[in-house]
Amino acid sequence: MRALVAAAVAVLALAGCAAPYDDDGELATVGALAGGAAPDEDATPIVVDTDLAGDDLVALAYLLRRSDVRVVAVTIAGTGLVGCDPGADLVADLVHALGEGWVPVACGREDPARQWPREWRATAAVAPGLPRVDTTFVPASDPAPLSIAKLAGSTDDLHVVALGPLTNLADLAERWPESYRRLAGIHTMAGAVSVPSIDGVAEWNAAADPAAFAAVLAGPVPVTVVPDDPIPAGTPDLLAAFPVVGPIVAATEVPKRWDLATAAAFVEPGLATVDRGAWEVDDSGRLSRTGPGRVAVVDSLDPAGLEAAYDEAFSG
Length: 316
What we know:
With 316 residues, this protein is of the alpha/beta class. It has helices at residues 54-65, 84-98, 118-126, 144-154, 167-175, 177-181, 204-207, 210-218, 245-251, 258-267, 303-315, and strands at 13-14, 17-18, 44-50, 69-76, 105-107, 159-162, 185-189, 223-226, 272-281, 287-301. It has eleven helices and ten strands. It comes from Nocardioides soli.
């Protein structure tokens, strides 16, 4: 998911409504759920860095629904399953289906170290279950790493919830290191500790850009990693009852809800236990603990607590 995209800004019309521009003249897209609570005054500001697979869409909806976090931008990890095209359109279609509000969207470069399976990419690109709008959304002109850098410089306590490969964050650290250091934390779904590899891959978010993951693990910003291992198997039945996310969940059959569980663990850290240390990652996405350190790798999640968190967000 990484190829720095400097897209021109264009007007987006959703359901016949012209989209407004921000103070810089850049177009922002809808980003709040209908009927959801407005963010609290002290809500934690977050950037959602995502590759917009079906599970990412549900996780993004979950984070938009929470009143204790405020999504200030969505950045597209182009080294993942879905790049800027059609990723920007998927964000616009998701938030249009959910309701009204505004959040900037920016894109990152698209040159993964390991190519994702073509069938997975094709399925993710059409976003089964997501209502589609026949418009084209062109994102902000700044590439994703620069967009995050600017936000880090102007937003206190900014966190990144990363649901795809970590290329945008590694690029930010390399090009704008002072802005990178201003991030309050990175919470990422990536890597695997002991689950079996399949066709040489332990976990795809990490394997698509292991160098980026390694750079983030070794960097100065606090990192919490949610690997494949503790994610509960299956899909909670309660998700089927909720508008918008229910059809997406039904249409994207996956063995685990990796990104949704990761998002809930960010908002409610008490649902997780962690193993802190120094960690490294190999080209397959396999994590290994190498000694003492401050990187937190989640080693267990509370399945009942996760379901309660989903229910609170989507039914509230």
